[in-house]
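Data deposition worksheet. Section B asks for the primary sequence of the deposited chain exactly as it was used as input, without tags or linkers unless they were present during the calculation. Section C holds the resulting structure in token form. Section D is free text for depositor observations; keep each observation to a single sentence. Incomplete worksheets are returned to the depositor.
Section A, Depositor: J.P.
Section B:
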Amino acid sequence: MSRAGPGFQPAGRAPAPAPLDLVQDFVNSEVPVWAQDDIATPDELAAWLRTRGLLAGDAVVDAASFLRARALRALLRELARRNTDGEATLDSGFRDEFAAVVSDARLRVELDERGALRLEPDADGVDGALASILARVLEADATGAWRRMKSCPGAHCGWLFYDASRNASSTWCSMSICGNRAKTAAYRRRRGES
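Section C:
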């Protein structure tokens, strides 16, 4: 059972606003520092997706879909890490890996009743669920909100957090946890060098 349920944030940080809250929960289904992975098996992935309304009750998670979902989670964490570091350029290897992982998570453009364009999954099963997650990332990217989704650089952390600071300058999931650990480690290194 997860120690960090949906919406949980270290040190009381506010969760990402919709639609990024689902993306944040998906990536944070793995918490390396706690050796926790809420989607460590195909059955756990199926349950996670069903709980969030992304997978029909009779849908099966096969081995290939399971591996694609976990790979997408890692790639989204890496993209968020790049937001933290301010890295603007992606190498072709990363882009190729991303393309391979999302190739079956197809999206289509629809017009809603208000006349707004939206992206909808154009696949069933796990691929449709992954497409729903990707649609939220694309929507957030279009509004500029994705740049505020960051991955904590703390050793063994990687927690995805939403940087709601005025100038989008937050680096740590929690200054009192990971930020303090980094400052303490840097202080100890400096003291050891003197």
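Section D:
The longest helix spans residues 63-85.
The mean pLDDT is 87.
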